[in-house]
Amino acid sequence: MRTQLLTAGAFCLFAGLAGASDTSFTGYARSLDGRDLLYVESHAISGGGDADETRVVLYRCSAGSAPFARKELDYAAERIAPAFAFEDARSGFSEGLRRNAGGMEVFARAGPAAKTRSEELAPVASMVADAGFDEFVRTRWDALEKGGSIEVPFLVPSRLDSINFKVRKIADATIGGDIASVFRLSMAGPLGWFLSDIDVSYRKRDRRLVRYRGITNVRNIAGSMLEAQIDFPDADRREGAVDLPALRALPLVSTCR
């Protein structure tokens, strides 16, 4: 059950933007003890903060190596639940949320030999999907800062449905010389017994995601989902035009070189 539930960790892999712009930045995913670099994720955002915002994220085993996975997001329909598609050529895993004239469809594939499963989704009020959690945090910032606990339906593609999570602030922390608010996500109800908490840290001065700690949707070569601490340093952030078509065209490799 644990591996079926934990793809919710994917939402935190995108740092929030304030104001429309083209931006690129990098996240470094390390083992929870900080010893091993697990992968590097390169983010490119076009029109950040606008209704037509789109993003491409490439996942590499190390900086400069060929990508083994890619995620694309489209915020046109809903900022807290963007359409997205994730594909990992190394594990064969894929998942996402499609939007069309008829509504929403969630899909997931467990591996290269597995069948892609899909399900039409009935509308769920305030449902959050993937990186839409950043927008959710910003819109609920004041309530969370005051210590409130908020229950939110979060899309879990492997379940082809949303599951309720509780979000609450647990601490302030100093990260990269700045004060950040640390929010904890816990699965609501008995299912929470099978899921470790996920902690996400947002810098107070601009409400930007600076650290994620918990399960991710990236798998190791054995197919097990990785737990990681992902840091997004300012030193690797760049403002300027991004070439999303070129990033979409890059072939994905099935092994790290």
Characterize the quaternary organization of these chains.
single chain
Question: H/E series, N to C?
Answer: HEEEEEEEEHHEEEEEEEH
The largest sheet is: 15 strands, antiparallel
The figure for the number of domains is 1
Give the mean pLDDT: 89
State the distance separating the first and last CA atoms.
Answer: 32 Å
- Helical stretch tally: 4
Evaluate the radius of gyration.
17 Å
Q: How does the helix and strand content classify structurally?
A: mainly beta
Global outline: globular
Q: What is the helix fraction of residues, given as a range?
A: under 10%
Uncertain residue ranges: 1-19
* Count of β-strands: 15
Residue share in β-strands: over 45%
Helix and strand arrangement:
Blueprint (H helix, E strand, L loop, with lengths): L1 H4 L17 E8 L6 E10 L7 E7 L6 E8 L8 E6 L5 E7 L2 E7 L7 E5 L10 H8 L1 H5 L4 E7 L4 E15 L2 E10 L10 E6 L5 E11 L5 E7 L6 E2 L4 H6 L8
Antiparallel strand pairs: 1-2, 1-14, 1-15, 2-3, 3-4, 4-5, 5-6, 6-7, 7-8, 9-10, 10-11, 11-12, 12-13, 13-14
What does it look like?
The protein has 257 residues and is mainly beta. Mean pLDDT is 89; it is low at 1-19. 9% of the residues lie in helices and 45% in strands. The chain has one domain (2-237). It has a 15-stranded antiparallel sheet that branches.
Considering the chains and any ligands shown, give keywords for the structure.
15-stranded antiparallel sheet, disordered N terminus, globular, 257 residues, mainly beta
